[in-house]
Design a protein that fits this description.
By secondary structure, the chain is an alpha+beta fold. It is built from 13 helices and 18 strands. Helix 4 crosses helix 6 and helix 4 packs across helix 13. The protein is elongated, with a radius of gyration of 26 Å.
């Protein structure tokens, strides 16, 4: 019977065969302990010399790291192992013997590991991070599907910038200019006017020359847009979404969180409603904490966000940022025109902003005015202006950065470990 490591609990007391790789090994004259992995998980295989043919024991004893094998044996419960099961091996068939595998159990430098990212992914730690990432993706689709959202795929090649910045990757689109998308938001607004509640999930690109632990050049975004949803409605969806994915990871990735040494008590604290502070209140708080380097009208940096979030020990919303530091499409606050109806969700423990969102302008004249104020080409935005011209309604949306969210929930320090093949300022390999 062929099976996988993740399924062995169904076969206790039975003999099965698993295709696996040898992650590590230790042996003595009488017993060999094989640390096996098959992509679905990790499990120990025990080969006892007195219970198998001599050739089987010698094969097991001579196996090299990352050799591929078929192992056959009986599944037993093992309460000493976090996994809970092990295999009493009776047969080992070598598929390919790996020679001089470069990533050994010793310590390696980050650059070496990044150069060997295609192999580093096989490690227990990276396996755990990718499983948590996968669970967040699964729970994302679950949440939006259960709440009546329609999945829409915006284009990756665009002719304009939703943020109005120069941090774009330029390319030629036959005889005209095009850019790699930095956000699908404008297209998602068009979809929301057709389908009500929509979400996208895809790659985005930012040509920021940043080397911080929070930044990637290519990353994945979840971007919902909701017709007839005002600012407060959107905040409620964001709270519910974040708590849903956290609960899903706590429930379905307990082994992976344990492997990463994650303090799950900190995740268990995350519950709705999230605290909210206005930008004005945040500036005042920072001044009281001795941050004299920031004034009203400045955007927050990582130290500022961390100080604010740590004060609450919870994910929080910072709302009502100054109009001048936010994109052109954000709806002004009803009682003052110097701030907009927007919010950044800041994760605790120093992980920074994971969501940015706002109510969108739905007045045609105001939208046209803002586009002109930001010196954006009206021709390129004509289609977007049509949305506020033909049956416009109040609508809101937000964008969540997947890799930052994975880093926070898994407790990993740097986002380079939260995407399979990171693209960094000085890294396009492998």
């Amino acid at each position: 019977m062929k099976t996988t490591i993740s399924e062995v609990s169904k076969y206790v007391g039975q003999e099965v065969t698993i295709g696996a790789w040898l992650a590590n090994k230790r042996s003595s004259g009488k017993i060999a302990f094989l640390q096996l992995r098959d992509g679905t998980g990790f499990m120990q295989g025990v080969v006892v010399k007195s219970e198998v043919e001599e050739a089987v024991f010698q094969t097991a004893k001579s196996l090299t790291q990352e050799s591929s094998v078929y192992v056959t044996g009986t599944i037993q419960e093992d309460n000493r192992s976090p996994f809970g099961f092990e295999m009493q091996v009776t047969k080992v068939e070598v598929i390919q013997a790996a020679i001089d595998y470069p990533i050994t159990p010793k310590e390696h430098g980050t650059e070496f590991l990044m150069d060997n990212r295609h192999l580093w992914l096989r490690s227990r730690r990276q396996h755990a991070v990718m499983k948590i990432r996968n669970e967040i993706v699964r729970a994302t689709y679950e949440f939006f599907n259960e709440n009546g959202f329609v999945k829409i795929d915006p284009p990756i090649l665009t002719g304009s910038s939703p943020e109005g910045t120069t941090e774009l990757f330029h390319t030629k689109y036959f005889d005209e200019d095009a850019y790699l998308s930095q956000s699908g938001q404008l297209y998602m607004e068009a979809a929301a006017m057709a389908l009500g509640k929509v979400f996208s999930f895809g790659p985005t690109f930012r040509a920021e020359k940043s080397k911080t632990r929070r930044h990637l050049i290519e990353f994945w975004m979840i971007e919902p847009e909701m017709a007839f949803y005002e600012f407060e409605d959107s905040l409620k969806v964001q709270e519910e979404y974040i708590t849903h994915i956290i609960q899903s990871v706590l429930k379905n990735c307990a082994l992976e969180l344990e492997r990463l040494g994650r303090d799950t008590a900190k995740l268990e604290k995350i519950s709705v409603p999230f605290p909210r502070v206005t930008y004005d209140e945040a500036i005042k708080f920072l001044h009281e904490q001795g941050f004299d380097d920031i004034e009203w009208g400045d955007d927050f940096g990582a130290p500022h966000e961390t100080a604010i979030a740590n004060h609450y020990d919870q994910a929080i919303f910072i709302t009502h940022y100054p109009t001048k530091i936010k994109p052109f499409y954000m709806q002004p606050a009803p009682d003052r025109d110097d701030v907009v109806l927007c919010a950044d969700m800041i994760a605790p423990e120093g992980y920074g902003e994971i969501i940015g969102g706002s109510e969108r302008i739905h007045d045609y004249e105001l939208m046209k005015q803002r586009i002109e104020q930001h010196q954006l080409p009206l021709d390129a935005y004509k289609w977007y202006l049509d949305l506020s011209k033909y049956g416009s309604v109040p609508h809101s949306g937000f964008g969540l950065g997947l890799e930052r969210t994975v880093a926070w929930i898994s407790g990993v320090e740097h986002v380079r470990e939260t995407i399979p093949f990171p693209r960094l300022l000085n890294r396009l390999y492998p």
